Amino acid sequence: MREFENKKYWALILGGSSGLGLATAKKLAKHGLNICIVHRNPRMQQEAILREFEIIKKEGVEFKAFNSDAFKPEKRNEIIDTLKLSFGEENKIKTLVHSVAKGNLKPMVSVENNELKHDDFILTIQAMGISLYDWFKSIFDADLFAQDARVISFTSEGNTKAWQNYAAVSAAKVTLEAITRNIALEFAAHGIKANCIQAGVTDTASLRMIPGNEQIINHTLKRNPHKRLTTPEDVANAVYLLTKDEASWITGTIIPVDGGEHLR
Amino acid sequence: MREFENKKYWALILGGSSGLGLATAKKLAKHGLNICIVHRNPRMQQEAILREFEIIKKEGVEFKAFNSDAFKPEKRNEIIDTLKLSFGEENKIKTLVHSVAKGNLKPMVSVENNELKHDDFILTIQAMGISLYDWFKSIFDADLFAQDARVISFTSEGNTKAWQNYAAVSAAKVTLEAITRNIALEFAAHGIKANCIQAGVTDTASLRMIPGNEQIINHTLKRNPHKRLTTPEDVANAVYLLTKDEASWITGTIIPVDGGEHLR
Amino acid sequence: MREFENKKYWALILGGSSGLGLATAKKLAKHGLNICIVHRNPRMQQEAILREFEIIKKEGVEFKAFNSDAFKPEKRNEIIDTLKLSFGEENKIKTLVHSVAKGNLKPMVSVENNELKHDDFILTIQAMGISLYDWFKSIFDADLFAQDARVISFTSEGNTKAWQNYAAVSAAKVTLEAITRNIALEFAAHGIKANCIQAGVTDTASLRMIPGNEQIINHTLKRNPHKRLTTPEDVANAVYLLTKDEASWITGTIIPVDGGEHLR
Amino acid sequence: MREFENKKYWALILGGSSGLGLATAKKLAKHGLNICIVHRNPRMQQEAILREFEIIKKEGVEFKAFNSDAFKPEKRNEIIDTLKLSFGEENKIKTLVHSVAKGNLKPMVSVENNELKHDDFILTIQAMGISLYDWFKSIFDADLFAQDARVISFTSEGNTKAWQNYAAVSAAKVTLEAITRNIALEFAAHGIKANCIQAGVTDTASLRMIPGNEQIINHTLKRNPHKRLTTPEDVANAVYLLTKDEASWITGTIIPVDGGEHLR
Predict the structure, then answer these.
(1) To probe the interface with A, which of C198, C203, C250, C264 has the most A CB atoms within 10 Å?
(2) Is 0.95 surpassed by the pTM of this model?
(3) How confident is the model at residue C101 (pLDDT cuts 50, 70, 90)?
(4) Residue A192 contacts by C-beta under 8 Å, 6 or more apart in sequence?
């Protein structure tokens, strides 16, 4: 029997239709966690996404997906209410995964009219940072967390580095980390463990959309001691490890999952 | 002659009417920097503040103060315009100091109706974090920075720690640090150096307003290797050091100024 | 079937007769790893230790123990030769665990005649730091590592903090970390992954021997968000996670395993 | 009058005949500190070194130099005794600077017969790490430190990174940092402040001797936000800042002095 089978455990994955989030959904389903994905995609991508979701369902776990704007409080409440209803007394969220990539990449100074503005910071910090707290709190208030639940968010080396155009995302990532740390502290009495995974440069659609990504990729291939990019599956593996019972004393940390990329 | 005398250098201090900001104004004035303070105080405090400002003026430097809401773009623009006009071609801002303490201290979970909300994060991050970027950018765009200018912001050990009620301020501090780092990077070509000072627990009016501050103070007196709190003057001294020519290769750093408090 | 059963994988545990090392041996044996323990104990403790070893053997794995001075090159070579011979072609070391606690706790300044000396640093750094390299290198040179092998060493928060009497151990711990990082880098091409676990204050015999340990324990019970000490089993669990296939992209890191103790 | 003139303050600089140490001597002499240099150079370099020393003497400060093996206890005691005698009651050491570069750069694994060995770690850690403690302690025990004295040591980004061939130096640097932190803690009651400066890649003779230094230099020129290497004078400037009265609340820190190189 699989590890989490018959436990009526769910993973709720914000941003689970692609990249790290989708790989995480597949990995956790393989070990028997039921999967709830919240995502936001235009209709034209829907078909491809449904094919991915079929792969998850084939693991024989329960599966729900909401294509919805996860940043609107009323949409969030709707989803939480739906889950509450369908979960009954026994189903609970074991792992909340925050895999939201929606930020503004702009320079602080530029001759073109695309400089980073106050509102770019706000929007990026809300989407990639504070949304973790919003969802976490709604789930907690609805009493949907399992005993010994896990909160896992994804950060990057931009938490201590500074990269051209990355200021707003950097601020969002460190905000996400601060929120994760405070959840680890303030909800310790409720058995919740919260950690960040600091992924290396990962081969995703998001990466391919960053201007100059070929240069980033080439530099990473040289820099990484294992001479390859991080894959979504590498990160999903780490989420799985952190979900296991044996990880219950690990909380409030930032764990690099990057094949040693941070070493140089 | 004093170090910065006759250079027509100014320090612009956001939050300069008390605490770290005021001490910094006094210290820099002593060395010949002209002082511009932006602050926000109710009328009943005005008299006491004016007495402090008199001390600064006695150093024989030029002095301006704006009692104004520094977070409103139109107020900011007004002040910048006023400075631009009065500065002429020769006066420039050598040091921009961000000493804004205006955050929401609330628990993430509580039986009382005072839990931390989405908007608490936004307001605190705007006031204590993003406002540095807003002011920095307005000054830069108005061409008011001196050659080899300095940007200095104040952070706390809450950048890696988690304290009850401190989540929003923690998020604001790490945002402030991220912005400071990106300024250091993206404006290096413009000669600007940007650093954070991580003050120890400092004896200020702000500290006295934190619930449970006596306990914080007692713990700090035991913990600090030098068995005293940090004073505003300790921090002002560090701002002065970072303003000196000899500090021009120090940028993008977070420097603890705490008598070694972070060591245990 | 158990996870590592029939793989002919071994864990070699330096300092495996008590505390973190022993708990690790038990945990890994439970999942089917064969166990080799190198330890150094006087005869009077031997009986109690053998009882512990019986518990490991009951897991049905192969077991070897060497009561020997692990810091002497000739003893090390003897043990490696013995393993080489008995392992044949198929048995390999999957996980090398360094759990050596043998350091000098002395003050830098004291009126008594017990001040920290040059040789205290040397001996402590050799025993708790460089010995990892010595063993690692001997095993590597003897071609005893499995594919995708793991090196795991134990550090403490004393890597960034400073505690009275702890200077030599602190130096040894950061040396151990530096060696672990360089192994992660320089042996990446050989598939080896190396990480440090930063345990919280752990309830072990070693802790009880530190002067003032009651005070450390009381402080920790207040400080730890989960209001208990770290147990050897907490740490053993983390070693197990890092040994799993899913951890193969985690290398060169320092992972706190402390229930969030480092957060405040 | 110069800042430290007539105070009978000395700077003792270990490794002061070249690079960071020599630049520091010149800078501190310029501000009126008397200079004592301990160095180890072969006779053939003596003439060039004496020319450098003449530059220091021209500042009109007192000057002593000892060409001696600073790592031998008897040589150290001899020098301390000589200073003690000549200092009388009034002369004191204000700043102790550790600028010793003498380490083994070897790979952990290599087909050539030049692999890093146990003794390489020991020798490098002794020379570049523990020697700070030896000298510090001898000076302290001889009561030669001034009130509010400063201990300053030089580290590198290799304290958290891993570079090929750098393992022993990395271990020595983190040992040096650990010692510096414990001095900051354990001698706080004696008014001593201890800090590390983390220099960027600096253009020195030591750098030019590292195999592959052209590549390091080229990479640094691209990476550094200010597009130049760190100079010995940049670092000397920071030592000067840390020696000033205004730095007396800064202790136990690691301060990057690298033009923001660590940011990316």
Answers:
(1) C250
(2) yes
(3) confident
(4) A140, A145, A149, A150, A151, A183, A184
